[in-house]
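Workshop exercise sheet. Pairs work together: one partner reads the sequence aloud, the other fills in the structure field after running the prediction. Swap roles for the next sheet.
Pair: D.N. / O.F.
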Amino acid sequence: MAAPKLLYLMNEALFFTTHRLPVALAAQQAGYLVHVAAPYEEGPVEIIRRHGFAYHDLPLKRGGRSILGELGLIASCLWLIASIRPQLVHHVAMKPVIWGGLASRLLRVPAVVHAVTGLGFLFIREDRAAKLIRRLIMPLYRYALGHGNGRVIFQNPDDLALFTRRNLVRSDTTVMIKGCGVDMEQFRPRDHAADPPIVMFPARILGDKGVHEFVEAARIVKAEGIPARFVLVGRRDPANPTDVGEAAIRQWEGDGLLEWWGFRTDMPEVLPQASVICMPSYREGLPRGLIEAAACGLPIVTADVPGCREVVRRGESGFLVPVRDGRATAEAIKELLLDPELRRRMGAAARALAKAEFAVEAFVADTMATYRAVSPWPSRS
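Structure field:
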């Protein structure tokens, strides 16, 4: 009997290599022929192919709203699935879940797994356009997630509750897997902290990630004469409506508020240079950057919102501040900057929490168990 095929439908090739690679390797070891479909990015695609996975280009634009573009994406999903004939498709993130899920149902793929990795700006914004799009995509979600042999993975209880409350998913098909797992040996505490201390924002430079509140906090802390460096570590994301332009970032640098280190692939070395991690996001699935920071034994300041609150124990491993509140963010940062013992104690608690709840081994085991719940085909484990 031919080996069964597992297809990952992704919104980014980079996201596959950073968030799904360990699971794909475990599936390959279990007997699956692994296929990955995502928009082409040279470096990540090279990694995908190097591991023996089949790669397929997917014409997906995350921020695109063109009707013709979305119809082309649906057609590509239908053609791809019909050509590969996978026994299992794992859809990851909003567009792959909706359009890939629709295609998988129409083509009667034997088994599917959906990963709701966060609800994005459409569920954060309350303007008329966002509300209209939400109303339009709800029935699409309901159809895509209604496969007769599927599971829907959620990363936090708030997203799961929202989907069940709106009857978008049957409760008996839901699975809770917190985050995507972090290698606790790769991400670990190291004595690399800088002097003066660094307050680090490790995320894409987006308004919805709380970058404006981070900048406001930097302005407040520096105005009070507290020695600290504020650092952005991440890339811009022009596909996102809340992307911050380079001119604004350079202006912040010119004003002496912060440094921008850009996108980095060596985060196990970068994170330990920080003394405090701050990402006051407006909403998340479950942010890997904060899990990595916790694994490195760093205290965290983040917003008390879905996804972020799962990574921090209030007052134990960090501070949860009101969303969109730069002043409260600054006060939490100041408390940590002025108390090295508090930083040490919270950092140790963050490391313990990461090891207990977010180790990559548990993530891989839970995801493989989800595959086995719908897909009996691989013969070895």
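Discussion prompt: The longest helix spans residues 67-84. What would you look at next?
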